[in-house]
Amino acid sequence: MRYVTPILIFAFLVYGIGYVILSRTKKSLPEVERSNEDIHFIFLLPCLNEGKVIGKSLDRLLEIPYSNKSVVVIDDASDDDTFEVVSRYFDRRVSLLRRELPEARKGKGEALNAAYRAITSSPEIIASDPDKVVIVIVDADGRLQSDALSKVAPYFDDPKVAAVQIGVRMYNSAKSILARMQDFEFLVFTEIFQRARHQIGSSGLGGNGQFNRLSGLADLGEAPWSNLLTEDLDLGLKLIERGWLNAFCQDTFVSQQGVTSFSKLIRQRTRWFQGHLQCWYHFPRIIKAKLSPGATIDLLYNLTGPLTVLLLSLSIFAVLFANILILIAEPMRYFHAVTSNYGLPLILVYVFSFGFAPVYAYLYLKATPEISVIRGLYYAHLYVFYSYIWFISGWKAIFRIVFRKKGWSKTSRFTKQAAILDPYEASKGRLVKRQERRTVMSFGSEPRVVEVENAHNRRGEFTLDDIDLLNQELPPELLNRLVRRDSGARGLGFLWSDVEQGEQSR
Q1: Under DSSP, is residue 253 helix (H, G, I), strand (E, B) or coil?
Q2: Residue 387: inside a domain, yes or no?
């Protein structure tokens, strides 16, 4: 262990310096924002007992100044009032997918796959260009910047781009030092590593603020997301291995709530660490994918990160333990050793431990101007100690793997599934009558029927392939494809808003 620690630390320094330089040498992507709104953004909000935050999240998403968007809330068998809160949104842009036990609560990936199958079974999406539909993953408490869609849209001008990840910040960073450290961590990661990896074509995807082109997801089958603990990392790797590009947009971000409990933070990072190890099956796939040398090396290095953390934790512990023993046995000799050559040993220890602190502070101060320089430097040094939580999390993850523990509950704060998009949706500018509507669709083995209930409780049933019902002239081959498709989507669809008589639909 004598030489392992300095070698590993030196490798980290070289790796970090290289990425700092790379992240600063190129402008990421186009500065010109598109003037039209030809991309249809569909937000997916997976929810499990998010009644306290889902209403405000919907309000914020609906207020984003971009008209060609929809919001799908995935209620994964919540016990609270999530369903009731979303049900109050009589808005054409809001849909609800309600999953029920025993099919529900099988992980975020399964919830997203259920929504994906329902979306791709809808008439509107079947008739759409999959290159012009983008699925956006946002946490229930996520807060997108108002310019997020206009900033991300130009990235999809490149037909090779399958996904775009934006930055992540913590909106409660001022209320907790743990939340501040997470804010610091995410910003440093995105400003150095994500920006650098964008240049070499190996950007990673996160669980929040993830934008996916529908045609890219379709290339992965009917279940793009896996049931791994880090389904976001897994998805990004699968897209790259299939020849797609992942991009990172540095010009906007999504805010989320930072964890304020140390035990919950360790639990969250243990889950991430274990999920990272689950993705090791990608090693041979990356090697076979014929990527650029830079992308291949970066992806393989990133996957080996957990092993490096474990080795570094052992080596640092061994060095500290040895120093403590020497200090106890021969304190004067130890003091003279560390202060020799004008304190050069202490200077070297500081450089190896905190060498990047000024860089971290600069990046954080640049993005957080309300923080003073002194406080920024303090946070940068504190962040070095904070990063040691990965040592604890890493060994806890190994323990869980050894004892074959895979299940997790979410970090606190269907047999029936829904068809998402309303077949009554009128084309732009078409006049519609004032009415309340509850639309129920079934696909697969269930009878393909649409049931409508108006304000006077008059009901009628129509077959799904009724052209008048669909309100759009779909080609026969698309209708046949829709009727034959076995998406597994059935049960409760959702409600759209009252529309004033004579008002043009959006």
Answers
A1: strand
A2: no
